[in-house]
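Entry 12.
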Amino acid sequence: MRLPPLSLYMHLPWCVRKCPYCDFNSHTAGDSAPTTRYVDALLADLDRERARAGDRSIESIFLGGGTPSLFTPEEIGRLLTAIRERFAVAADVEITMEANPGTVESGSPAGYRDAGVNRLSIGAQSFNDDALKRLGRIHSSHDIHRTVDDVKAAGFDNFNLDLMHALPGQTVASAEADVRTAVALGPTHISWYQLTLEPNTVFHARPPEGLPNEELTGEIQDAGGSLLRNAGFEQYEVSAWARDGRRCRHNLNYWQFGDYLAVGAGAHGKLSNAQGVCRYRKPANPLQYMVSMEQKSERERLEPVPEDQILFEFMLNALRLADGFPESVFSDRTGLPAGVLAKEAGAAVEKGLLERDEGGTWRPTGLGWRFLNDLQAEFLRNS
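Predicted 3D structure (tokens):
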């Protein structure tokens, strides 16, 4: 098995307030988050991860949450400096940090830029103030505009806007208004994704009124997609749209079944080694995580992914990509021969959900793209 690219994910778990649709490992802390103690724990965690990286170079770094912008630029700078001191880092490394408009103070983007962040992902979600309130967001449309102005003034030439659709009470016209406003702000990347009611969330227990039905949701997706294409964005993944050369390299590594180190509470890692494909994860509770690092608890074990699950895990990720994947990448990343793929994909091909071109690249058909969950489920029988 040829080693794939290596990324590093760092989880910063606190938010001012938990959103009712969020199923991420995030915890409400407001101004009381023990950020200094947590940064110390992350530094200890980086020490533990160094051996797993070996001499491999880190191609991308992603600071996710939670709300990483609750941490000061000085704290973020301390973390990024520590990474460079402990790991080989690619000269053109992509370093993304998530930020919410309601938690980015005036001037802070410049501080994060100075700290080493070169890409921001801003959680806008909508530019309709009523929709933002119904989503439980603490920022306004004005806050988004102000934050983007600060981001540009700080010298960021690469930033993403997160934008939701199929919101309570949303129409095609209001969804189009969100897309137009987002495009006008000049991002290089837009993550345009559907609101879903995930288990263990407030919205799952108490669904909001006025959610668009399946037909309206489809109309919203088609209308928004048309606007994004006409504005020069390319859809390269189910919910990711980018200008030329601005695809998110970190997320692409996930979708292409690359390797990634895990640092922080609840972070998940994946590594390829002599055992095959292995996964591991850190304690999810922030206090438990910090204590485990302070007490130098035994490092998390690498758990090999059973061979009969590797195919499904690969397809679950790679089928999200509009370009699909070459058979050579499948074999390199899974250790399985291309013949296994051809055999197991037969039913999906017969149903018109998946296709293979003469060069050996597999990709979803238009039908498979629209019914992606059904296509991915075709490979569940082996897991």
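Annotation: Residues 6-253 form a domain with the TIM Barrel fold (CATH 3.20.20.70). The longest strand covers residues 88-99.
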